[in-house]
Automatic annotation (TrEMBL):
<keyword id="KW-0004">4Fe-4S</keyword>
<dbReference type="Pfam" id="PF00384">
    <property type="entry name" value="Molybdopterin"/>
</dbReference>
<dbReference type="InterPro" id="IPR006656">
    <property type="entry name" value="Mopterin_OxRdtase"/>
</dbReference>
<dbReference type="InterPro" id="IPR009010">
    <property type="entry name" value="Asp_de-COase-like_dom_sf"/>
</dbReference>
<dbReference type="GO" id="GO:0016020">
    <property type="term" value="C:membrane"/>
</dbReference>
<dbReference type="GO" id="GO:0003954">
    <property type="term" value="F:NADH dehydrogenase activity"/>
</dbReference>
<keyword id="KW-0408">Iron</keyword>
<dbReference type="Pfam" id="PF01568">
    <property type="entry name" value="Molydop_binding"/>
</dbReference>
<feature type="domain" description="4Fe-4S Mo/W bis-MGD-type">
    <location>
        <begin position="1"/>
        <end position="56"/>
    </location>
</feature>
<keyword id="KW-0500">Molybdenum</keyword>
<keyword id="KW-0479">Metal-binding</keyword>
<dbReference type="GO" id="GO:0046872">
    <property type="term" value="F:metal ion binding"/>
</dbReference>
<dbReference type="InterPro" id="IPR050123">
    <property type="entry name" value="Prok_molybdopt-oxidoreductase"/>
</dbReference>
<dbReference type="InterPro" id="IPR006963">
    <property type="entry name" value="Mopterin_OxRdtase_4Fe-4S_dom"/>
</dbReference>
<dbReference type="GO" id="GO:0051539">
    <property type="term" value="F:4 iron, 4 sulfur cluster binding"/>
</dbReference>
<keyword id="KW-0560">Oxidoreductase</keyword>
<dbReference type="InterPro" id="IPR006657">
    <property type="entry name" value="MoPterin_dinucl-bd_dom"/>
</dbReference>
């Protein structure tokens, strides 16, 4: 029996794995004592052990020859990858070798991957899928507070505040065990406001549901701030004592009067007033965002506007109040702190800060001048693949961009234009299918490592089963590749040794892990960073005395509304927004291989309002085509009055003809470089295909 954590999302629910009396994969149960999920698991967590079955996961390296992928020895596979890296670097320079990581990787892996890129490859070409996830919220939090940690308070605080505005988050499907805190909030007399263009299962729980046009959250936040000012809810004392920049923020809000905001967002003025009343009626309140407002080409400014609302009303930097972002991936938080981001060194240090470079270079035993500088962001990196001056050899670890990247047909073409693609994965993902070498690696319950959940709580995910023969860990892969690139030392494959080095690397940094140890995490059910010494209790709540800027003050950002990069027009008259459904995780590489989940959600679909469907002559279940300037997809229609009639929604979990990312717009936020997954313009038509049979279970490529 082993206590560990879920392989999937940022809630990192505590679970227990026990031997199965009937044999086969272990039994999974929720762990009551773990304070975040308190015993609850969603269907994905409950069925996660299916991924441990030998027929599901990869068990031998694969290399490509003229006939396609074939099994190979580890020696041959690793030699091929290292050989390609050396050849590309020699011919095109070190930046032509790239690395693409993932927010699901443990802290140890993220750390070693960043070190591998900077020390063994000496490349600036490294970034990761977290750029597609919460990078806008991270950028806005850093600008406003001087520090970014998903939630600056434990999740349980949500149940004890007075009002929560939940913006573009659907935890009823994306973090089901967290819904308990929203229910408790209401049982305790608090109120819930949900902002979502769809009336989701989460919106069903709310006291007030605002249903704006996709891409208009910035105007909405400014409209609420306008009303807070007009109705006398500004906390002048707090503003004077703890912030800077209010005059500009006030002016920005005053330019967004209620009628203008109603016209921009479609949210009626009385609802705007009601939201402000609920938010300001109690002394404590929170704004929480997820991907809805963040995955926009103005995501950073949008989150900044919601933070401005918190600051102006004194609902930040105080107990039971503040702004938080619900991070997404298992290690969405830690994955962005330890150096797989194009501009970062471990501990949330900046790659462009001379002091940070010196500290890390000394630890790594290299000259600070030898550390590369910042590279380009995830989409830009992927878009450079195979181009002159771009990346020619790529190592992917923990992502499946063929399904998850915006404008995915374009990115698939770029991946196939590489000289060499190596993919480390647990399963044969759609991206692995394109690879020259596939390295099969150990996964969650087969290995030990730390992850940092959405609260900034550093957790220990323990090995519970012995990995199958033929599989090695990501750390071992990096160790072996580093050796072949001439680094005999410095790349341990032992997680606890890597963590010990990570602790030293983060000492004195914003995300300071130096006081955290595996033993402490186990004894305390997680330790909140920053934790600068073994005696330090950790920091569940940030900013209560001061914000993290040198002057201790938070900064208003004062943004102004601007349209989405692509608004509907005559040719593409509807909005498309994309997101998730409860049964599948991300690109679906893992969950499409779990029979219960594949049966519950067998394939892609397009949600549309019955009025829109009637106008198009489309009935429930009939195939529709959705066309954007990037491509066309075909999927069955799902009629629901829960969505706006000018907007259609698609989940993005499937490859094939219904791959939502064939449509999405890779317009990037100028600060965070986040693509605009949540808004583009499309045309929807009834499919006029010659009698296509819809397979009952759409075939996942490589499934
Ligand atoms: N089941 C499941 N759970 C997951 C994941 C998964 O793939 N599947 N992935 C994990 C990860 S990595 C992440 S990042 C999180 C994401 O968690 P969420 O952010 O909760 O998930 P999404 O479905 O992407 O988006 C949330 C909501 O944003 C709404 N939305 C769309 N456009 C807009 C807009 O313009 N404004 C506003 N306000 N809302 C908008 C959508 O209708 C949707 O209901 O989930 C995590 N948990
Ligand atoms: N249209 C649209 N697209 C989106 C989004 C959206 O809302 N709309 N959301 C975006 C967001 S928020 C995210 S986070 C991305 C996620 O999209 P991806 O980056 O594609 O994430 P996953 O599907 O989780 O892919 C992880 C891959 O790594 C493998 N894997 C799992 N664990 C390990 C491990 O320990 N080591 C290794 N080497 N591999 C492992 C899995 O099997 C899987 O193939 O998608 C983005 N794409
Ligand atoms: S909510 Fe997230 S962490 Fe919890 S069981 Fe579901 S997928 Fe796993
Ligand atoms: Mo994410």
């Amino acid at each position: 029996m082993t206590d560990t954590h879920c392989p999937y999302c940022a809630l990192q629910c505590g679970m227990r794995l026990s031997p199965n009396p009937a044999g086969g994969v272990p039994e999974v149960t929720g762990r009551d004592a773990f304070p975040v999920n308190r015993g609850a698991l969603c269907g994905k967590g409950q069925t996660a052990a299916a991924l441990l079955a030998p027929g599901v996961r990869l068990t031998a390296p694969l290399v490509r020859d003229a006939d396609g992928l074939r099994e190979a020895s580890w020696e041959e596979a690793l030699d091929r990858v290292a050989g390609a890296m050396k050849a590309t670097a020699a011919a095109q320079g070190p930046d032509a070798v790239g690395v693409f990581g993932g927010g699901g990787l443990t802290n140890e892996k993220a750390y070693l991957l960043g070190k591998f890129a900077r020390v063994a490859l000496r490349t600036r070409s490294i970034d990761y899928n977290g750029r597609f996830c919460m990078s806008s919220a991270a950028a806005a939090s850093r600008a406003a507070f001087g520090l970014d940690r998903g939630l600056p308070f434990p999740l349980a605080d949500v149940a004890r505040t007075g009002c929560v505005i939940l913006v573009g988050a659907n935890p009823a499907e994306t973090m089901p065990p967290a819904v308990r805190y929203l229910r408790e909030l209401r049982e305790n007399g608090g109120t819930l406001v949900v902002v979502d263009p769809r009336r989701t299962r989460t919106a069903e729980l709310a006291d007030l549901h605002l249903q704006p046009l996709p891409g208009t959250d910035l105007a909405l936040a400014l409209g609420l701030l306008h009303l807070a000012v007009a109705e006398g809810h500004v906390d002048e004392e707090f503003i004077a004592a703890r912030t800077t920049g209010w005059a500009d923020a006030r002016a920005a809000a005053m330019a967004h009067w209620p009628e203008r905001v109603e016209a921009l967002t479609g949210v009626p003025v009385p609802q705007l007033r009601e939201a402000v009343a609920l938010f300001t009626r109690t002394p404590h309140a929170m704004v929480l965002t997820a991907r809805g407002p963040e995955q926009q080409s103005k995501g950073t400014a949008t989150v900044g506007a919601w933070i401005d609302l918190c600051l102006a009303t004194g609902r930040a930097g105080r107990p039971l109040s503040g702004y938080g972002c619900l991070t997404g991936q298992g290690n969405g938080q830690g994955g962005r702190e330890h150096g797989q981001k194009a501009d970062q060194l471990p501990g949330y240090r900046s790659l462009e800060d001379p002091g940070a470079r010196a500290h890390i270079a000394a630890l790594w035993g290299v000259d600070p001048g030898a550390l590369p500088h910042s590279g380009s962001s995830a989409y830009e990196l992927l878009d450079s693949l195979g181009r002159p001056g771009g990346v020619r050899t790529l190592l992917v670890m923990g992502s499946n961009p063929v399904v998850s990247a915006p404008d995915a047909a374009r990115i698939t073409r770029r991946l196939t234009a590489l000289d060499h693609l190596a993919v480390c994965d647990v399963v044969l993902s759609e991206t692995a299918l394109l690879a020259d070498v596939v390295l099969p690696v150990t996964q969650w319950a087969e290995e030990t490592g730390t992850l940092t959940n959405l609260e900034g709580r550093v957790l220990l995910r323990r090995a519970a089963v012995t990995p199958p023969a033929g599989v090695r860990s990501d750390l071992a892969v990096l160790h072996e590749l580093a050796q072949r690139l001439g680094h005999a030392t410095g790349f341990s494959s032992v997680p606890e040794e890597v963590f010990a080095e990570l602790r030293r690397a983060t000492a004195g940094a914003p995300a300071d892990y130096s006081g955290i140890s595996y033993d402490r995490i186990a004894a305390e059910d997680g330790v909140f960073w920053p934790c600068p010494s073994p005696e330090h209790p950790g920091t569940p709540r940030l900013f209560l005395d001061r914000f993290a800027h040198p002057d201790g003050r938070a900064r208003f950002t004062a943004p102004s509304h601007r349209p989405a990069a692509e608004e509907p027009d005559e040719a593409y008259p509807l909005y498309l927004t994309t997101g998730r459904t409860v049964s599948h995780y991300q690109s679906g590489a893992q969950t499409r291989r779990v029979p219960e989940l594949a049966a519950a959600a067998p394939g892609p679909y397009v949600e549309l309002h019955p009025d829109l469907a009637a106008g198009l002559g489309v009935r429930e279940g009939e195939l529709v085509t959705v066309t954007s300037r990037r491509g066309t997809v075909t999927a069955p229609a799902r009629l629901t009055a829960a969505i706006r009639a000018d907007t259609v929604f698609m989940p993005f979990h499937w490859p094939g003809a219904g791959r939502a990312n064939l449509l999405t717009n890779p317009a990037l936020d100028p600060v965070s470089r986040m693509p605009e997954f949540k808004v583009c313009a499309v045309r929807v038509e009834k499919a006029v295909l010659p009698r296509v049979r819809v397979p009952a279970v759409p075939v996942a490529v490589g499934a």
